[in-house]
Specification:
With 610 residues, the chain is an alpha+beta fold. It contains 15 helices and 30 strands.
């Protein structure tokens, strides 16, 4: 009965709204409505200044389907409620909690948990919801492009006031100062009043927009970048408006800045909730940036604070359990873990400000942290310790976080960071991609040479059950550090049959760079292998040894003789001949250049000067 009553009320309200619109109101979403009108936007911007912030809160959905709301400052549960097969995460929308369930979109009171309305979804997904005071707006959409069907539903005090339908995809809305901001068709943002009339429209020509957000400082339009709604936004361009886009394209795992509202909302169990990006707005006037110039990349249990423009690392935090909900308010980053604990970190330093008690198995959580100020001060775990915990974790889900940890270790100028990179490069059970990144990060290190030497001192011994270290990576690192103490170990690895063929050239290059006496070792190697059937790696190594030997008269005679050796394979002979021709050409060019520099001006030059 209640279902039918709400639906009838919605249809009646929609008819009434459209009738009023025809009598002089602004019909919403009309294709002929003027956009980017600065005059129409002026009162909208004034109204934004009157936005009403809602109290900090947390809404959690447990594994058994229980929905709960917590008072964030008090860290106490307000209420719990059973749900009917939730298909999305809960949304904190003003004084309401919205959850898409199998029965429809269920609206509950934030204060009591009482079900106020159940709005049919009509086979659409919930793109978003927003509330202010007693008003609540829901955006339902099939998503996609051509042929999309969407519906806007506005409720007052929990009862449907009006609805609007359109054949375009909708994004996530916001309400600020009584103005409703609704993104649609990825480029447009219609501003409606609480009667459902459109009062202004923005069209963003260069950036898609799928989310409207009412946050501290104003209203923000976001997708890949973020606009703050200001007078300049009426230009419809990045240059004319307050706009900022963080450099997150290179983040491992490619977490988006904002979810794609043209697709169904992620389910409560989706990894999207645990691999995500958080930020808080900053700047003022026509300048848009992120608070503390930071963006927070969350990977299950790992949180990285990164420079928003460069992804340079600032700090890192690791949790004992998965992070299932988060929001930054500028001063704090508030996290909810899978045990229900609330953790507040200082946004600029990562210092633990407060921790709540765990209270259940949580699948997903929504956090509203605006206005929340954590009390107390804690300690910060050293960055290297945190990075070690992440890089060496056996949790296979953390690979993107581990890749980011390796990047941070590579930029950390300390011997301990070098040691940790060696350990990861050498870890037999580490994912191949992670090992490769750690090995590559070793090249170019300037500190930690003693760790390089120590790692190279290990040899493969069957009876001792020891494996050779990552010789190639260590050789390149020793060369870049000019670590001459590594020469003896490098020579040992070079003549050791257990050394992987693909590492031989790196070892040889390092020995040459470190000015080691390689004549005997390279001569023996060349004599032994030049006539064999060679793999590509061994062919490269034989050619490299020939190149080094050819620098001396005796060595050049040996290499030249190999070209006449009937046992030398044609492929090897061809590669050596190409190498020698290149060396001879280089020597001839150097001789000519030297002659030109020592000779006086030519007759032609002299005549020109006269």
């Amino acid at each position: 009965m209640k279902f039918d009553t709400i639906r009838i009320a919605a249809l009646f309200a929609a008819s009434l709204s459209l009738s009023l619109a025809g009598c002089g109101g602004g019909s919403a979403f009309s294709p002929t409505y003027p956009d980017n009108d600065s005059v129409a936007m002026a009162p909208v911007i004034q109204a934004i200044a009157q936005r009403r912030a809602s109290a900090p809160a947390v809404a959690t959905l447990a594994e058994d389907g229980t929905l709960a709301v917590y008072d964030l400052p008090m860290q106490q549960a307000k209420w719990t409620s059973a749900t009917n097969n939730a298909v999305s995460a809960p949304i904190l929308a003003g004084e309401f909690v919205v959850l898409h369930e199998s029965s429809g979109v269920v609206v509950r009171s934030l204060q009591s948990g009482t079900v106020l309305a159940t709005v049919p979804d009509n086979a659409m997904h919930l793109a978003g919801a927003a509330g202010e005071g007693t008003g609540l707006v829901l955006c339902l959409s099939t998503g996609g492009g051509v042929g999309a069907q969407s519906e806007v539903v506005f409720l007052e005090n929990g009862s449907v006031s009006w609805t609007q339908n359109l054949e375009q995809s909708l994004g996530a809305p916001s309400i600020a100062g009584g103005q409703i901001f609704i993104p649609w068709a990825t480029q447009n943002v219609s501003v409606l009043n609480t009667s459902g009339d459109e009062v202004a429209r923005l069209r963003l020509l260069e950036e898609p927009v799928g989310h409207a957000l009412s946050l501290e400082g104003g209203v923000y339009l976001a997708q890949r970048g973020v606009f703050r709604v200001t007078p300049g936004t009426s230009s419809g361009s990045r240059e004319g408006g307050a706009f900022f886009a963080p450099a997150i394209e290179d983040l491992p795992g490619s977490p988006p800045l904002m979810t794609d509202t043209t697709r169904p909302a992620p389910t409560p169990q989706s990894a999207v909730h645990r691999v995500r990006v958080e930020w808080a707005p900053g700047g003022n006037g026509e300048e848009m940036r992120f608070a503390h110039d930071l963006i927070y990349a969350i990977y299950y249990r790992a949180v990285f604070a990164l420079e928003a423009s460069t992804l340079e690392p600032r700090w890192v935090y690791t949790s004992e359990r998965d992070i299932v909900g988060a929001q930054s308010n500028g001063s704090s980053l508030v996290l909810i873990d899978a045990g229900g604990a609330a953790i507040s970190l200082a946004a600029d330093s990562g210092t633990v400000q407060s921790e709540g008690n765990a209270s259940g198995a949580i699948t997903v959580a929504s956090v509203r942290a605006e206005g929340y100020r954590a009390s107390g001060t804690g300690t910060t775990t050293p960055v290297l310790e945190q990075l070690t915990s992440i890089a060496q974790s056996p949790d296979s889900r953390l690979l993107p976080a581990q890749m980011l940890a390796i990047r941070m270790l590579a930029e950390h100028d300390s011997g301990d960071a070098t040691r940790l990179l060696i350990e990861t490069c050498d870890a037999s059970r580490a994912p191949a991609e992670l090992k490769r990144a750690a090995c590559e990060a070793l090249e170019g290190r300037t500190t930690g040479g003693s760790h390089i030497v120590q790692a190279l001192s290990r040899r493969a011994r069957f009876l001792e059950d020891t494996q050779a270290p990552p010789v190639g990576a260590l050789a390149r690192a020793a060369a870049s550090m000019n670590e001459t103490a590594a020469v003896e170990s490098l020579l040992s690895h070079f003549v050791d049959p257990a050394t992987p063929e693909e590492d031989l050239v790196a070892v040889m290059n390092a020995l040459v760079t470190l000015e080691a006496d390689t004549t005997a070792a390279f001569t023996h190697f060349f004599r032994t292998y030049h006539a064999g059937e060679l793999s590509e790696a061994m062919l490269n190594a034989v050619t490299r040894s020939a190149q080094s030997l050819a620098a001396t008269e005796e060595g050049r005679a040996l290499v030249d003789a190999s070209l006449e050796d009937p046992f030398t394979r044609p492929q090897t002979r061809g590669r050596i001949r190409e190498m020698l021709e290149a060396l001879d050409a280089e020597a001839a060019a150097a001789t000519a250049e030297e002659a030109d520099s020592t000779e006086g001006p030519s007759e032609t030059d002299a005549e020109t000067e006269e």
